[in-house]
Write a structure and sequence with these properties.
Elements (H helix, E strand, L loop, with lengths): L1 E5 L4 H13 L4 E3 L10 H14 L4 E6 L3 H7 L7 E3 L3 H9 L5 E5 L5 H11 L8 H9 L6
Parallel strand pairs: 1-2, 1-3, 3-5, 4-5
Helix pairs in contact: 2-3, 4-5
The structure holds D-ribose.
Length: 145
């Protein structure tokens, strides 16, 4: 299950994402909002990240103006590895090297056509494991500091 959420800046893309995820046969849960009214991105990022952290959803997609605020918030949650991706290359490496489980998108920075390719990449690229496994483990091990 893919958790999705946005703020007002990302609302339109979130609605379009539902169609795209449907085409990709990826079940999703929309955590809101239900309108494009001005709203605070942390409220939605916390909901989506909580669902990934708890295991309710395996992956998440968050959309705001830049993708940055959503990533900052989502990465506060245990087990969440959110990556703001503006390119297919970033999405590929976020999956292959960082095992990213939440994709954040900047609707004001990335055109929809690119977003389609970024999303497809994010859900098709595997985690490489190997040396990256150790590094990913260290992300969540604060005692290694
Ligand atoms: C909203 O204007 C904007 O600040 C927000 O969508 C996001 O870009 C924050 O990181």
């Amino acid at each position: 299950m893919v958790a999705i959420g946005s703020d007002h800046a990302g609302y339109e893309y979130k609605e379009q994402l539902k169609e795209l995820l449907g085409e990709l046969k990826l079940p999703f849960k929309d955590f809101g909002p239900d309108t494009a009214e001005s709203t605070d991105y942390p409220d939605w990022a916390h909901k989506v990240a909580r669902s990934v952290s708890s295991g309710e959803c395996e992956r998440g997609i968050l959309v705001c103006g830049t993708g940055i605020g959503m990533a900052i918030v989502a990465n506060k949650h245990k087990g969440v590895r959110a990556a703001s991706c503006e390119s297919v290359t970033a999405a590929r490496l976020a999956r292959r090297h960082n095992d990213a489980n939440v994709l954040t998108i900047g609707a004001r920075l990335t055109g929809w056509e690119a977003v389609v390719d970024i999303v497809k990449t994010f859900f098709s690229e595997p985690f490489e494991g190997g040396r990256h496994e150790r590094r990913v483990q260290k992300i969540h091990t604060l005692t290694s500091l």
